[in-house]
Amino acid sequence: MEYSAKVMEHFMNPKNVGQIENASGIGTVGNAKCGDIMKVYLNIDNNDVINDAKFKTFGCGAAIATSSMATELVKGKTIQEAIKITNKAVMEALDGLPPVKVHCSCLAEEAIHAALWDYCKKNDKVIEGLKEPVKDIHEIE
Amino acid sequence: MNNIYFDNASTTAVRKEVFDEIKPYLLDFYGNASNIYDLAKKSQEAIKKARKQIADAICAKSDEIYFTAGGSESDNWAIKGVADALADKGKHIITTKIEHHAVLNTCKFLEKHGYDVTYIDVDEYGIVSIEDLKKAIRQDTILISVMFANNEIGTIEPIEEIGKIAHEKGIYFHTDAVQAVGHLKIDVYKMNIDMLSISGHKLGAPKGVGALYIKNGINISNLIHGGGQEKGKRAGTENVASIVGLGKAVELANAEIEESTDYITKMRDKIIENIMSNIKYCRLNGHPTKRLPGNVNISFEFIEGEGMLLLLNSKGICATSGSACTSGSLDPSHVLLAIGLPHENAHGSLRITLSKYNTMEEVDYFIKEICGIVSRLRDMSPLYEQFLERQK
Asked: What is the DSSP string of B241-285?
């Protein structure tokens, strides 16, 4: 198994690590049992534009790199645009992932969706195509 | 800093002294040991010498040592060979939950072929429960297979006691001693061992060579069928050069046990003491004293192992983890789960395995780097964030 240079770059120097106080939307996906948890914080302005994104991730190199890339990709996008950023887009932006790590990119997509869902719920908004995130184990059991 | 190799339980470099011994058998003395001319005799003599070197190291007789292609073959042979030879007597085998996959998957294979296998539990330190072992024994039990020392957590099993129980009941006893040979003193008679697996590349011999000790009189079928090599028990033209290397490596390692143990244990204990006192929320896996001299296995809460390994690698340090991400499956190490670790803590484990070629300078450098790496990953971890919030 080998990571691309891009994955290693985003693992070694991840972008957007941290929390956002009073974030517009927060999404947590994955579970500790399987070894991956991603928590994404989004700040969204009055025009529905994502002006900041941060993350915290418990997981492997690919989990951290996909979190970093996914948060980079959604920054500056409207929520309508952000929902269209798929795991494939995250993977392509990272010059690919080893097959056993593809699920990390799915998790990154889900984390963004979960944060958008949280925002919509709080603000009574609807994004076409956005589904309620699957409830997973968020807690340290 | 050069490469710091802290993964000696995975494999080792071929030792210089071993390489020098091997070289003529690759270039000059390449004869097939089965033939009659002088060149072939060179090979025969070399194999004979290696057989004695290994027998001496484990207090066995020369004619009880059989060369194989490695530890996995030795384990497969011992278990499948006895299962086949004693099928009329019984079809029950006892092993443990923390064996190497060479034993576990061989047992699983036999289960598909009508055998019954009991995988006994270990305690929180990874030590086999003697009570459970006794309870598991049945009329039709033909084999007990328990590893000498565990490859992940370094725990040393009560081999002599297990062997005694097996023999009282007339059951064969096999031990996978791949991690023990050359590191721990072994006396196969005193320890009641009927079969013992050895691997070359864990102690400075090449990869692809190993041995199985089979006590004289043990009823075992062949695994590799073909020519009459190894007294008709293991076919295939002898891997003379590697066999020479195995003999030399075992002899050297065994002669150095006391000296190496002292030196390596000091490094091991320094790492353990420093990590346990400088880094919060971690746990030493395996037994504090009944453990291999070179083994450190620690779980760091709130973080995942692969990230640690990548960051250590960026500092030139080679290590391994029991996390799922490094095993290629969704489950973390079966050994860490067997000693009762929750999945999330098993994911955050780090294994360091030292050899006599490591130095205190390397240990100090590692201790310095690991503290930064753990805190860096914890700062990124939502589990740690949640934990800190709950502490408030």
From this structure: HHHHHHHHHHHHHHHTHHHHHHHHHHHHHHHHHHHHHHSSSEEE-
Which residues are CB-contacts of A59 (< 8 A; sequence separation ≥ 6)?
Answer: A30, A35, A36, A37, A38, A104, A107, B304, B307, B325
Which pLDDT score, from 0 to 100, does residue A141 have? 32
Q: Do B314 and A12 touch (CB under 8 A)?
A: yes
* Number of domains chain B is built from: 2
- Those residues with Cβ within 8 angstroms of residue B253's Cβ, 6 or more apart along the chain or in another chain: B57, B181, B182, B183, B203, B204, B260
Quick one: pLDDT at residue B200? 98
Sign of CA dihedral A99, A104, A108, A109: positive
Say if B304 is an interface residue toward chain A (CB within 8 Å). yes
Residues pairing with B122 in the sheet:
B128
If asked whether residues B129 and B263 sit together in one domain, one would say no
- Whole-number Å distance between alpha carbons of A19 and B166: 59
Which residue stretches of chain A have pLDDT < 50? 137-141
Does A76 lie at the interface with B, CB-CB under 8 angstroms? no
The ipTM value here is 0.91
Domain spans in chain A, listed from the N-terminal domain onward:
5-123
- CA-nearest of B213, B208, B277 to B14 is B208
> How far is the C-alpha of B304 from the C-alpha of B349, rounded, in Å?
8
A120 DSSP 8-state letter: H
Q: What does the pLDDT read at residue A140?
A: 37
CATH 2.40.160.60 assigned to domain A5-123? The reply is no
- pLDDT under 50 in chain B at which residues? none
Q: How distant is the Cα of B124 from the closest Cα of chain A, in angstroms?
A: 20
Domain boundary among B255, B280, B313: B255
Q: Which of B230, B255, B280 is the last residue of a domain?
A: B255
Distance from the Cα of A99 to chain B's closest Cα (Å) equals 10
Total CB pairs under 8 A between chain A and B: 75
Predicted local confidence at residue B367, as pLDDT: 97
Phi, psi of B126 (to 5 degrees): 95, 10
A60, A104, A106, A120: the catalytic one is: A104
Return the pLDDT at A137.
Answer: 47
- Interchain contact, A63 vs B330, CB within 8 Å: no
Angle ∠(B317,B319,B323) on CA atoms, nearest 5: 140
Residue B48 has φ and ψ, to the nearest 5°, of -60, -40
Token pair belonging to B104: 């576990």
Domain range for B277: 257-379
Contact of A63 with chain B, judged by CB distance below 8 Å, is answered with yes
Q: Please indicate whether, in this complex, the C-beta atoms of A32 and B344 are within 8 angstroms of each other.
A: yes
Asked, for residue B308, whether it belongs to a domain, the answer is: yes
Distance of CA B356 to the CA centre of its chain: 17
- Contact (CB<8Å) B382/A38: yes
Pair B38, B115 in one domain: yes
Tokens of B40: 């072939």
Residues B211 and B270 in one domain: no
Q: Which of B344, B350, B373, B391 to mutate to test the interface with A (most CBs of A within 10 A)?
A: B344
